[in-house]
Amino acid sequence: MTTTTETRLPTRPDGVTDAKLFIDGEWVEAVSGERTPVIDPSRESQISSIALAGPEDVARAVAAARREVDEGAWSRVSGADRGRMLWRLADLIEEHREELAALESVDIGRPIGEPFFGEIPLASEVFRYFAGYADKIHGTTFDLPDLGGKSRRTYTLRQPLGVVGAITPWNAPTMITAWKLAPALAAGNTIVLKSAQEASLSTVRLVQLIEEAGFPAGTVNLVTGRGSVAGEALVTAPGVDKISFTGSPEVGRGIAAKASGALKKIVLELGGKSPQIIRADADLDEIISTVGTGVFANQGQTCASGSRIFVQRDVLDALVDRLAAHADSIRVGDPFDEATQMGTLINERQLKSVSALVEQGREYGVDVVTGGERLGDRGYFFKPTVLVSDNDSPVARQEIFGPVGTVIPFDTDEEALRLANDTEYGLTSVLWTNDSSAINRFTKGLKAGSVWVNAWGPPHPATPWLGVKTSGIGEELGTSGLLAETVEKVVNVVG
């Protein structure tokens, strides 16, 4: 949850400028002139509006990115200079940390301390990390035999893919936008960025900082609006070489189908239903706060949320009591109140979805230990919720994307592994134990892109971020994510 320090946190913005599109270095209205309101989810009131890009706007953005990567100024920028621009951008993010955090908080309703202490500094760290790689992307040389009596020198070049279409989610817009942009720009690609309709304000400000950092016109372009219109136009645009998407499996499957027809490269991160496995030897008093953070951070609207909590039966009652007490102690309220530990869901649709899934759980026979209902009648607040269930209930199978933790008992390690892997998802997982042999068994046996042991948190930019099964295709971050932004060309020189 939010960490309190002596630092004074940002206050709610007095007013937010209506957002335009950014195409070829200019801030412009959508060709249609259409806009949609931006709603503060904690007050259910309009705070701004964003332009609704259409296919013509997307086509212009793609054309600008295509020109720039093929023959524009960006195509001639050295790796060292790309790194300097990325480092400058990281500095600007730090300088405007308060503003970016406030925009993210008012836009999606999360406590101001979370983006201020977490996501915004992490975004800066991501740009700085990949800035260091921009002049270190290289190929491989080969010692091969002569060909036809002539000497042969063979090597590979790592070159940019071209135009990357990046489609970002609403739950952590600044950080995940950094995940997609930093390695792509370090490798020399250009970007057409489609921000989430529900949360574009901090992304618009980030793109303004990209402009200030000196990136040439056309290098990064921003289109805002509906996924079904602007997002689909970006996926199907012939000038786009790769689509990077973070969102739901349903949308991800549609993107994969459309992109595959044009043989575009894709990276999909499609959420999870991640397990936290608590063995009887874990110190419950020591771990309960972090277990709770893994469930309730960002109102549970986190792809890596550890919302399936498997507990060895010997300590089941003790864990449930502690987790329920932790949930009841969380202060839910105004995201800009420094005492607030949990804010609001993103919109009314998400509130109804979370409420409906908990109701399905009740009908199934799940034990609602605490919470399970809306809080108040203004703002999309939902009480921190603890359920006890088996692994077959709707609340154990579906990604709720709300502040709902489902506790599931197990007896043996073998049963815990089987239950944890019995899901269509495989993004991340958490193990709580002091037994080194159990750590070896679980880290090998868990089917997930990452495993935390005795901790839970965001990925570091040096490590790859990926999912297995329905949780995704391809890698972001780390050297794997960086190389995925390049194409390797083989060069044979004979004579």
From TrEMBL:
<dbReference type="InterPro" id="IPR015590">
    <property type="entry name" value="Aldehyde_DH_dom"/>
</dbReference>
<dbReference type="InterPro" id="IPR029510">
    <property type="entry name" value="Ald_DH_CS_GLU"/>
</dbReference>
<protein>
    <submittedName>
        <fullName>Betaine-aldehyde dehydrogenase</fullName>
    </submittedName>
</protein>
<dbReference type="InterPro" id="IPR016161">
    <property type="entry name" value="Ald_DH/histidinol_DH"/>
</dbReference>
<keyword id="KW-0560">Oxidoreductase</keyword>
<dbReference type="Pfam" id="PF00171">
    <property type="entry name" value="Aldedh"/>
</dbReference>
<dbReference type="InterPro" id="IPR016162">
    <property type="entry name" value="Ald_DH_N"/>
</dbReference>
<feature type="active site">
    <location>
        <position position="269"/>
    </location>
</feature>
<feature type="domain" description="Aldehyde dehydrogenase">
    <location>
        <begin position="27"/>
        <end position="489"/>
    </location>
</feature>
<comment type="similarity">
    <text>Belongs to the aldehyde dehydrogenase family.</text>
</comment>
<dbReference type="InterPro" id="IPR016163">
    <property type="entry name" value="Ald_DH_C"/>
</dbReference>
